[in-house]
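Reading a protein record of the kind used here takes little practice once its layout is understood. The fold follows as a row of integers, each naming the local backbone shape at the matching residue. With these conventions in mind, the following record can be read line by line:

_____
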Amino acid sequence: MSTEEDHKAQLDAQFDAQLGSQFEKPGDLVERNEDTGVMQVESLCMNCHKNGVTRLLLLRVPFFHEIILESFECEHCHWKDNTIKSASQIQEKGAKYTLDVENETDFQRQVIRSDFSVFKVESLGIEMPKGSSQMTTVEGVIQTIHESLAGEQDLRKEQAPELHDALVPIIAGLKKMLDREGFPFQVSLDDPTGNSWIAPTTTDSGSKYKRRDYPRTHEQNEELGISGDPDAVKNEGVTEPEDAEIVPGQVYSLPSECPGCAKDCFTNMKQIEIPYFKEVIVWGTACEHCGYKSSEVKTGGEVPEKGKRITLTVENEVDLARDILKSDTCALHSEELEVSVQPGTLGGRFTTVEGLLTEIRDQLRGQIFDVDDTTGSGGDSMASSDKEKWERFFARLDSAINGELKFVITLEDPMANSYVQDLCAPAIDHQIKTEEYTRTEEEEEELGLKDMKVEGYEEDEKKPAEEAAEQQS
């Protein structure tokens, strides 16, 4: 059997696993076109309540994973409906994507929305609420929001004139975007299941396109129907160490809730001191129920006045073995490797240079070439030119990991919480260049520093108490 046939067999097996058990009831009409892979199922029309036909197709999306396209049509009332469903299970973490839409190419980026996702037009401060899942483009979502708001304006003018007037500038802003006159603007897509997506491109740089993975809260797990212990939320973050202060080197176990299966588990924490840097806390979670594992590093201390930029020249295997701490606020760049990792993408990591590059490679490969994709086809719609470009990228990254390629990496951390091991300390290591820089207004805003008040807050706390005393007197 050829590799292409193997891949098709894998998709068929996954398709059967996802759908087969749902349509084995008496009376269901189940047919499959062996050439196209389309499955036809007899189902009930939600409009006229007679039987219609639903067509389903399992599709591999490049940079994402498998989805199921559903298309329903009723021959009696001619009602039609198109939706998508994820062919993957709920992911271990939720995901939030942010995109600066600057041109027509960005406007045509593919968007996949699950039933639990929230799409926001950040520039206008509006959001598209949770609803039916869909596979569309950024333009398609903007068009849907515009039609939904504009279609009921006449009714609002009579019944809710204040709401009508408030929506006028928002609808005008959406129309301006659709007319290609509103560039640039920012959109975001937040999905606690991790099964929604905005397509990236190989030319994304800076903060134009960002993805942030985050652990779900207990409330989000309950909403998704995967919460195992109703009292688990009471245990989040609770610990009773014997000592008043955390003892460096001692492991503390905290009862928590597994992000993967929502059952009870423990998160272990340990404070360690990095020479010539600062103290950090390493967190590790291992669930005995589902096998979920994760680790993260948190740094403490006061907020520094400036950010820090660290540039390391990697020349050999010794440099690959250097310890490296990348905080969750740190961005990583390398022109030689054509790698750009935005803050929050990998979270906090304390590893080696080789280990960090390996994590970047494995995460990207998992998004582009699915872990079960033995052919390396990258999905049903990946262009051959894109495939060749990604193959060259991974080959170069593998060469760097194996010590066959010299390169330079730069860690840029606005909170100055990242670190690269200095092999010559306390003498000067000429392969490391460290410099401070002034944070941009955008970085200050993202870190919440503009709203932080560190001086005079005592007076603000006294005022409510004084006012309450005056009212009582």
